[in-house]
Structure formats: structure tokens, C-alpha cells
Amino acid sequence: MAWGVIYIDGNNLGKLYSRIQTDQEYIKVSENIERASINAVNQVIEQMKLKDKYASPILGGDDIMLFVPSRLAIDIYFKLDEILTKEFRNIDGKGNGISYCGSILFCKKTMPLKIIFEASNSLLKEAKSAYYNNFQKGEKEKKLYCYESTLG
Q1: What are the structural domain ranges in the chain?
Q2: pLDDT at position 148, please?
Q3: Could you tell me if 62 and 33 are in contact, meaning their C-beta atoms sit under 8 angstroms apart?
Q4: Which residue has the higher pLDDT, 73 or 141?
Q5: CA dist 70 to 6, 25, 108, 112, Å?
Q6: Kind plus residue range of the DSSP H or E element containing 115
Q7: How far apart are CA 69 and CA 71, in angstroms?
């Protein structure tokens, strides 16, 4: 048995927060990001009938980590991507959105959590590095996907 570990983190939040003028506006945007992330995960869980088949050790703000059945991980990731793209489009109510990067780690269910978190974080950093390198080169903003198999 194996897990697909999906890890997603928002990009350029500092840029979004730098436009904020008041504490109330900061709170509103933070709550919108939190609500959008939770809503997206809940929609995916419901649509893909994953109740009691997943774990979510990180779900807050712009960070999402899901442990899902490995055979469904890629489909779940793309469904989550579809929903998050809509949810994050106008996150501040003024037409400003956020993008994000994500990774999927495939691993045995017996793998120690510390190693899973380290490997997932490493993959996410790799995806973010590629994203920022492409963005700095003037390429159109896009999400990148990074996969690593540790099944064998």
C-alpha cells in the first residue's frame, strides 16, 4: 500500500500583502486564503468520494498537504488545481489573486513521517525554484508539477 502526498504552497504572498493598507484588510485577505484552501480540499474530498480515505496534516492559509491513495493522487491533484485556480483568482476582492506550486510524493505507508515531510518539502522547493526561475525569465506564469517515486 502506498500514499500519494500532495503538498501545495502559495506564491508571492508578500507581494499581495504589501498592497494592504489596514489591519482589517490584512485579516480579510488572510481569512479569504484560509477559506479558499479549506473549501477546495472539502470539494475535492466530496467530489472524489475520499471521506475516510485521506489525511490532512497541514491545511491552513496557503499551505495544503494531503495524504491520499496513491492510485488517485494525480487525479486528485488536478481536481484540486482546478478548484484552487478559481478560489485564488480574486482572493482580495480587488481582482488580485495568488498562484501556487505543488508536488506529489509517492511513498510507502510505512515510511517515517519525518522522511515524508522532508521529501515533500524538498520537492516543493524544487517546483518553486523552477517556477521563480521561469517567471524571472519573463515566461508566462504557470504552475509546475514535480513527482518522485519512492515506492521501490
Answers
A1: 2-150
A2: 56
A3: yes
A4: 73
A5: 10, 39, 9, 17
A6: helix 113-136
A7: 6
Strands 100-108 and 145-150 come out as parallel
The set of cell numbers assigned to 30 is 488572510
Chain mean position to CA 111 = 22
Instruction: Report the C-alpha gap between 47 and 58 in whole angstroms.
Output: 20
Report the alpha-carbon distance of residue 63 to residue 72 in Å, rounded.
20
Maximum Cα–Cα distance across the chain: 52
Quote the CATH superfamily of domain 2-150. Reverse transcriptase/Diguanylate cyclase domain (3.30.70.270)
Q: State which of 1-5, 46-50, 86-90, 145-149 shows the largest mean pLDDT.
A: 46-50
pLDDT, tens only, 95-142: 888 989 999 999 999 999 999 999 999 999 988 888 878 776 776 655
98 vs 114: CA distance, rounded Å: 29
Question: Helix (H, G, I), strand (E, B), or coil: what is residue 63?
Answer: strand
